[in-house]
Design a protein that fits this description.
Layout lengths: L11 H8 L3 H8 L7 H14 L5 H8 L4 E7 L4 H16 L3 E7 L4 H12 L5 E5 L7 H8 L4 E4 L9 E4 L1 H15 L4 E5 L5 H16 L6 E4 L4 H14 L5 E4 L2 H13 L9 E3 L16 E3 L2 H17 L1 H4 L5 E3 L2 E3 L11
Parallel strand pairs: 1-2, 1-3, 3-4, 4-5, 5-11, 6-7, 6-8, 8-9
Antiparallel strand pairs: 10-12
Helix pairs in contact: 1-2, 1-3, 5-12, 6-7, 8-9, 10-11
Keywords: DNA-binding, Transcription, Transcription regulation
GO molecular function, one term: transcription cis-regulatory region binding
Protein name: Transcriptional regulator, LacI family
Length: 344
């Protein structure tokens, strides 16, 4: 492979040489032709990423009759989960040669969704991705607003037959509770996220299901708002109630962080006195004191799968209508914040 001179403008021929294919093959990959073998497509995409090649979007649009831009309407970008979904969608889109236009809406209401979709339609996007983590989203109304433009729902409670991608939150809740049960805990308190978020509701259902199956009920169930401050306040409330508990499950890692500090302030040792378990596996969770046992969500896979679902809908809309919702399974990450309860 001839050396590539850094700083020069990367061309389709540079990509072809780097990948060891013809420039026609590179063109077929860029223009989403289905005749390219998956291994060859992957080599070309890796070469595009390595060389930072930017396809000529104007020329590509003339060939494909597409803008090469995908629209994202998202709610809740101040929270870790939705923010990670958008970041990973953008990364996956860039690897496939697409740009992304983003509209963040302040509330997940029909009016705000309509405003976001209409704003993106002005940019002639090829498809929409909607991050919709709240309950009660009207998929039929979204379908009407999108018209003939394909769309995919992410993290939605119900997709109404529309292509969608989600993470099995109830399974994640079961994993968390079962880990504590396997350690021998019987007195478990639950600090849930806001129940208008279907993720929080499903995690709580998963916790309850695991406990019920084992013949236990939670000693306390309190509802927070995803923040460390709410985890701190709820744990203070729980301690003040004098209800005995040996383990605490938090709706996310931020709430677990607040719980850890509240326990520390009261001289309650983690995990020897109380085990604490979170959800999400944010990058900082392994640096908590002690490092946090949590449930990991694979947001990179979510981004890649959601993009693949949308591109299928863009290229083959009739086939895409029959695609089921794609579900990813979360994973338990065991660290130092959980252990077996003391025996008295």
């Amino acid at each position: 492979m001839p050396p590539f001179v850094s700083g020069s403008r990367v061309t389709i021929h540079d990509v072809a040489r780097h990948a060891g294919v013809s420039h026609q093959t590179v063109s077929r990959v860029i223009n989403e032709h289905l005749s390219v073998a998956p291994s060859t497509r992957q080599k070309v995409l890796e070469a595009i990423e390595t060389l930072k090649y930017q396809p000529n979007q104007a020329a590509r649009s003339l060939v494909t009759q597409r803008s090469g831009t995908l629209g994202i309407v998202s709610f809740g970008l101040t929270y870790y989960g939705p923010a990670q979904m958008v970041v990973n969608i953008e990364r996956a889109a860039r690897l496939r040669g697409y740009g992304v236009a983003l509209t963040s809406i302040p509330e997940l209401s029909e009016g705000e969704i309509e405003r976001g979709l209409l704003e993106l339609r002005k940019q002639s996007v090829d498809g929409f991705l909607l991050v919709a983590p709240l309950r009660g989203v009207n998929t039929e109304r979204i379908r009407s607003l999108c018209g003939h433009t394909p769309f995919v729902l992410l993290d939605a409670a119900e997709t109404g037959g529309t292509p969608g991608v989600t993470i099995d939150q109830m399974s994640g809740g079961r994993l968390a509770a079962q880990h504590l049960l396997d350690l021998g805990h019987e007195h478990i308190a639950l600090l849930s996220g806001p129940q208008r978020w279907h993720d929080a509701r499903l995690r709580l259902e998963g916790w309850r299901a695991a406990l019920t199956h084992a013949g236990y009920t939670p000693v306390s169930v309190l509802e927070g708002d995803w923040t460390a401050a709410s985890g701190f306040g709820l744990t203070q409330e729980l301690l003040a109630s004098r209800i005995p508990f040996t383990a605490l499950v938090a709706g996310n890692d931020q709430m677990a962080l607040g719980a850890l500090w509240a326990l520390h302030e009261r001289g309650v040792a983690v995990p020897s006195d109380v085990s604490v378990l979170g959800f999400d596996d944010i990058p900082e969770s392994r640096f908590f004191h002690p490092p946090l046992t949590t449930v990991r969500q694979d947001f990179a896979a979510l981004g890649a799968l959601s993009l693949a679902a949308l591109l299928e809908a863009v290229e083959s809309p009739r086939e895409a209508q029959a695609l089921p919702t794609r579900v990813l399974l979360p994973e338990l990450v065991v660290r130092a914040s959980t252990t077996s309860p003391r025996r008295t």
